[in-house]
Write a structure and sequence with these properties.
Elements lengths: L4 H16 L5 H13 L5 H5 L11 H23 L21 H13 L21 H18 L5 H8 L3
Helix pairs in contact: 1-2, 4-5, 4-6, 6-7
Length: 171
């Protein structure tokens, strides 16, 4: 991570304020101030390693994709209940999560929405409390979502079993 002199000075002042107001431990702040003052770039990760790099930041479009996917699975769950069907008969009707290796930021955002914000918390999942699909699923979800949107535009909220199966077949 590269920081300009201005960025380092700004962070140094922030650490001084946090130290003086006892927001952080004095030792931690003094260490950060020394690292930043001397420009020890190798050690910046120790200070800010918990802050994701740009490639791991969720864009608005990526957040919307996760939100739309979870909304779709919520709609699928409602359709299954309305049609008196069983989730077990339709394995792809449950949210599988995202691949922890290849889709980690999507997995983290879905977990954040479902656990911290308590949105979609009643969504049926393949493994309770585990949103790691252990396989890439984004492309499948996008295919399902495309079919879901087409059917929803055509039929509205009342979805037939055949329409539901068309969506689930995309998985």
């Amino acid at each position: 991570m590269k920081l300009s002199k201005f960025e380092r000075v700004s962070l140094i002042y922030q650490h001084m304020v946090m130290r003086d107001r006892e927001i952080m431990r004095k030792e931690e702040c003094d260490l950060a101030i020394e690292i930043l003052s001397n420009g020890y770039e190798l050690l910046y990760g120790e200070l800010y390693g918990h802050v994701y790099d740009d490639q791991d930041v969720m864009s608005v479009d990526e957040c919307s994709e996760v939100f739309d996917t979870l909304s779709m699975f919520e709609g699928i769950d409602s359709a299954i209940q309305d049609l008196s069907l069983d989730h077990e008969a339709f394995r792809s009707s449950k949210f599988h999560g995202y691949d922890g290796n290849n889709e980690a930021k999507f997995k983290r955002f879905a977990e954040f929405l479902m656990t911290k914000e308590r949105r979609f918390s009643d969504l049926p999942t393949i493994q309770s409390g585990n949103l790691n699909s252990h396989m890439p699923v984004r492309a499948r979800y996008r295919d399902m979502l495309q079919e879901w949107k087409a059917i929803s535009a055509e039929l509205g909220s009342s979805i037939s079993r055949e329409s539901l199966e068309r969506v689930l077949d995309q998985f």
